[in-house]
């Protein structure tokens, strides 16, 4: 980014009190450890500031991308133009990482959590309070905001099963509470009529702490055995086609262990691509294209991406 562009973004962000990192390598903010620089990575202090950034980006026509913990993202090597907003980093205001019980009735126990709360921390909170419902999320990294947008799930359950309402910032920069019923939540995709998730209310049930712990332990063990959890990756690359599993299709066309540059199809889970040290986004993208075309040619199935590809 040249000085003129940085000065322009600086002027767009005039009055913004939170932290701004210019030219920030996204490889430091994604679980893949891949990605060129974001022109401006910003960490708002509160909802009012977040609303203001969204308004400014709109009026000044600067592209804006919401970032969670970057566990489902492939950022291209050329980086991201415009403003990237993070609510999950400690550099953003604590309010985005609040968890509070708001009510309890015959329907269950209602918890409000900020979009920046990390899913493992939220899961730990539910265990401490003896609340059941989120056990499926054991081993899913990322923030609650990302989990809502991806409708994250595992073992046949997903966020939509618990979601009571979502607090968002709409396109005009206003905060709006939306009942989950009014939102389109599909398999690994949620459409919100707005730009940012700032928090969500989840409906949980009172449960037995020991049973909750045991289920979580079982899930974590299974993930450890079946996923390359210790290597940089972005989770499942492709969605499972209806009635099929992507990893089996990929395996059936002989792609286990296939590599381009430093990007490798995991031996442990063929729907995961690993960054074997210094992989470029272009390596991963070439590997994704190769897998997709081979699966299509040999099985007739078109795989759809689960991982989100952003940047230039
Ligand atoms: C080892 C590993 C295992 C995984 N296992 C699973 C699994 O079992 N099941 C599963 O579903 N996923 C899994 N994932 C994928 C990933 O963890 C989930 O999709 C997660 O919910 C993404 O959250 P995030 O905060 O990292 O979002 P990011 O990757 O940062 O973003 C994902 C999308 O959400 C948007 N977004 C993020 N925060 C906000 C916000 N506050 N407002 C508006 N938009 C926002 C982003 O713009 C992007 O489009 C796995 C990933 C890894 C690395």
Quick rundown:
With 312 residues, the protein is of the alpha+beta class.
Tell me what you see in this structure.
The protein is an alpha+beta fold and 312 residues long. It folds into three domains: 3-86, Uridine Diphospho-n-acetylenolpyruvylglucosamine Reductase, domain 2 (2-Layer Sandwich); 98-226, Uridine Diphospho-n-acetylenolpyruvylglucosamine Reductase, domain 3 (2-Layer Sandwich); 246-310, Alpha-Beta Complex (Uridine Diphospho-n-acetylenolpyruvylglucosamine Reductase, domain 1), CATH 3.90.78.10. Helix content is 27%, strand content 28%. It has helices at residues 3-12, 47-59, 119-128, 144-150, 209-226, 246-252, 281-299; strands at 19-25, 37-43, 64-67, 73-75, 80-86, 99-105, 108-114, 131-132, 153-154, 157-158, 163-169, 175-179, 184-186, 189-191, 196-206, 259-260, 263-265, 273-275, 308-310. The strands form six sheets. Strands 6, 7, 8, 11, 12 and 15 form a six-stranded antiparallel β-sheet that branches. A hairpin with a 5-residue loop joins strand 11 and strand 12 (175-179). The protein is globular and about 55 Å long. Bound molecules: flavin-adenine dinucleotide.
List the helices and strands and how they pair.
Layout: H1 3-12, E1 19-25, E2 37-43, H2 47-59, E3 64-67, E4 73-75, E5 80-86, E6 99-105, E7 108-114, H3 119-128, E8 131-132, H4 144-150, E9 153-154, E10 157-158, E11 163-169, E12 175-179, E13 184-186, E14 189-191, E15 196-206, H5 209-226, H6 246-252, E16 259-260, E17 263-265, E18 273-275, H7 281-299, E19 308-310
Parallel strand pairs: 2-5, 3-5, 4-19
Antiparallel strand pairs: 1-2, 6-7, 7-15, 8-15, 9-10, 11-12, 11-15, 13-14, 16-17, 17-18
Bound molecules: flavin-adenine dinucleotide.
Flavin-adenine dinucleotide binds at residues 31, 65-73, 87, 115, 140-143, 145-147, 149-150, 152-154, 196-197, 227, 229, 233-235, 308.
